[in-house]
Predict the structure.
Amino acid sequence: IAGITQAPTSQILAAGRRMTLRCTQDMRHNAMYWYRQDLGLGLRLIHYSNTAGTTGKGEVPDGYSVSRANTDDFPLTLASAVPSQTSVYFCASSVRDQETQYFGPGTRLLVL
Amino acid sequence: GQNIDQPTEMTATEGAIVQINCTYQTSGFNGLFWYQQHAGEAPTFLSYNVLDGLEEKGRFSSFLSRSKGYSYLLLKELQMKDSASYLCAVMDSNYQLIWGAGTKLIIKP
């Protein structure tokens, strides 16, 4: 692995289902982030983690949860998906919270 | 509230120069970033400005005026591969990035 990977690449999900989006980085970055990107809007921060074991809420956290059990992994869970969660989800990481962020390839999620 | 404004779309000709503007109003300022995003791909880092002035990096330059809440990205000798969206983002007082909606740049031969 080199950089950040995300899985799945894309997913179609029935409303009400639970879904976990995976994110793994091998750069030993301390900070990690989840964003959603919708047409006509800027990237919006969902949740972040400045270091393993800690997490924080971003601009649009409702309906999402995260965990940071170790440095490398930062999964995002949708407990009960709704159509408004249809979006492209990007995971990013940085050496620490004040540094440049580097992005994974994204997960395209369609909730029907 | 916090706000980042940039034009929705711009068109330029191959070989020419284009300037993409970004104005911002944020709670605090800890730097301004420019990213490039090709359609269907992830954003990739282009430049970072925290002090006033011009930062040059090859064909790309970025300018910042903190007093005016203004930045621009200058692309020279445009190539077809420069067709992409360009995202302006400001790091606020909480070290979170506030993003503009992006400027879609169309390059014509």
User: Anything to note?
Assistant: The mean pLDDT of chain A is 96. The first strand of chain A starts at residue 4 and ends at 7. The radius of gyration of chain A is 13 Å. Chain A has no helices and eleven strands.
